[in-house]
Amino acid sequence: MDYTLKIKGGQLELPTDQRKHFESQMKAAMQIADHGRRMAAVAAHVLGPIRKVAEYLEWTDKFFANDPARPNDVVRIAQDTYTAIAYMSSPDGQILYTRPGKSYTTVSWRHIRCGLEIPWDAGDWGWDVMGTKMMEAAEELARRRDEVRQPLLDAAAIGQAGHIPTVATTLTKASIDSIIQGAARVGFPITQVAVNIGRLMDQTSWALPANSMVSGVVPESYGRDLMTRLYFNGYGGLTWIANHTIPYDYLYLTGPASKIGWQFLDAVRGASETNIDRDVDKHNWRQNIAAHIEGSQWVWRLQVV
Amino acid sequence: MTNRYFNVLTPDQAIFDGVNKLNSGSDAVYRGMLAGWPSGGSLGTSTGSAPYGQFYDYLRNEEYVATEDLGDYLDGKEVGVVTGKYLSLCGPDCFAAGSIPSVGAKLYAGTAGLLDVNQNWDGAASIGKVVGHYTVADAAGAGSFSAAQCLMDLPVL
Q1: Yes or no, beta carbons of A44 and B64 under 8 Å apart
Q2: I need a surface site. Which of A102, A134, A203, B59 has the fewest CB within 10 A?
Q3: Any chain A CB within 8 A of the CB of B1?
């Protein structure tokens, strides 16, 4: 049976029918395992391991619209340049026509895979070995998906003049304001920003400009948020996507995902086998992924140097 | 930090020999260290120029393993050794230098059962090659370390 593993809200999610199939497999394996040894592990009051690596949270997916295309589908992304003109003319003059051209780009796919070997006696260890390792596998798949998409965001921002500003030492209000203003000025207003949660807390040192219209009349909630959370969520009307896996020195600011580009995520397919030579169960997961950015105008990257 | 991360990536192509005994009195024997017969009929880590394989034993018969030092548990008992041609992933402390060699480096038997880029014995055969680097999330927190993907070609007979 193919398993479709997803991370949803930081949790590992398996559709009900697949979970039941998996549980029945595990149950069968448990029955084979020696009962006495398993009970000894339970009686020993084994406490599961505490994670020493922070959970990986996928973040670049927020910048791409999902499209159901799969490998072997012919994906053609139309390329267009603006051609129309209108003009002042004498009514007796000839009409001037412009015509659009035809061109497409396509995507290349990447294949991500991850394999685990679980010894048959793992059921005796007294902690949820399989669940823990599946979570790690899902996180590593997510990390690789980010590795596919993040360079596209970088390239998009770098390709646009003035879209990779820098700010010294800490994130400042002025550096964010300047991007919000610059983007709004040309009609590609940004709506979301991905920032490392630690970097976001630089907001505690933000000062509103003196003598400005808003100085002294900001909402009380602003001050309260800064006191209790060290950041003010929602600044600039943006959706602040903040977690610890986003790069500390880079902020990605973009418009809505649907205007930027697409991601093509094939289902995570899983397969398992029992290896009777080495007393292990082998599990693997694999996924095809492709992504493409068309609307570079919407993408900005702020670097804290 | 002692980082002896060691995994055999292509176990179905390797030979897992579990019938040889570990030298009694051995200690500081970890997965990934080179195994051989320095003297007598039992395996140890100081292997000289002709290593047999790499120790590969997850101590599956022990109930409450408190250290991965195989010597603590398998003193005089049968120990697992992986040998043959296989890909492995080795952390920095599997190498004599304490860091992973660059991609393309040839590997030789080191003096303390570790992998070494230096040929410690004249004419000793190469036992592997570093064919890639992988990033592994690190227990230090948000960090990570690089592990060397090695194509091993053992034993030296």
Answers
A1: yes
A2: A102
A3: no
Q: What are the DSSP E strand ranges found in chain B? A: 6-8, 14-17, 34-35, 53-55, 81-90, 106-109, 115-116, 128-137, 144-153
Q: Is A162's Cβ below 8 Å from some Cβ in B?
A: no
Residue A282 belongs to domain with CATH number = 3.90.1690
Which three-class secondary structure state does DSSP give residue A250?
strand
Instruction: Specify the residue for token string 């697949």.
Output: A18
Task: Kindly state whether residue A78 falls inside one of the protein's structural domains.
Answer: no
Does residue A252 lie within any of the structural domains? yes
B63/A278 Cβ within 8 A: no
Q: How many domains, in total, are found in chain A?
A: 1
Considering only the beta carbons, identify the residue of B11, B58, B142 that sits closest to A54: B142
On whether any CB of chain B is under 8 Å from the CB of A117, the answer is yes
| Chain A residues within 8 A of B63 when measuring between CB atoms | 37, 40-41
Partners of A41 on chain B (C-beta within 8 Å) are 63
| Encoded amino acid at A224, one letter | R
> Is the whole-model pTM more than 0.90?
no
Give me the interface pTM, i.e. the ipTM.
0.83
Interface membership of A37 toward B (CB under 8 Å): yes
Range(s) of the domain holding residue A270: 6-73+113-304
| Whether the Cβ atoms of residue A167 and residue A205 lie closer than 8 Å to each other | no
The structural domains of chain B, ordered by start, are 6-153 (2.40.300)
Rounded to 5 degrees, φ, ψ at A292 are -150, 140
Q: DSSP of A153-218, one letter per residue?
A: HHHHHHTSTT-S-EESSS--HHHHHHHHHHHHHTT----EEEEEHHHHGGGGG--PPTTSSSTT-S
Contact A53 B138 (CB under 8 A): yes
B142 to A56: CB separation less than 8 angstroms, yes or no: no
pLDDT in tens, chain A (305 residues): 777 777 777 777 778 888 777 777 666 656 555 555 555 555 667 888 888 888 899 999 999 999 999 888 889 999 998 999 999 999 999 999 999 999 999 999 999 999 999 999 998 888 899 999 999 999 999 999 999 999 999 999 999 999 999 999 999 999 999 999 999 999 999 999 999 999 999 988 887 777 777 666 677 777 788 888 888 888 889 999 999 999 999 999 999 999 999 999 999 999 999 999 999 999 999 999 999 999 999 999 999 99
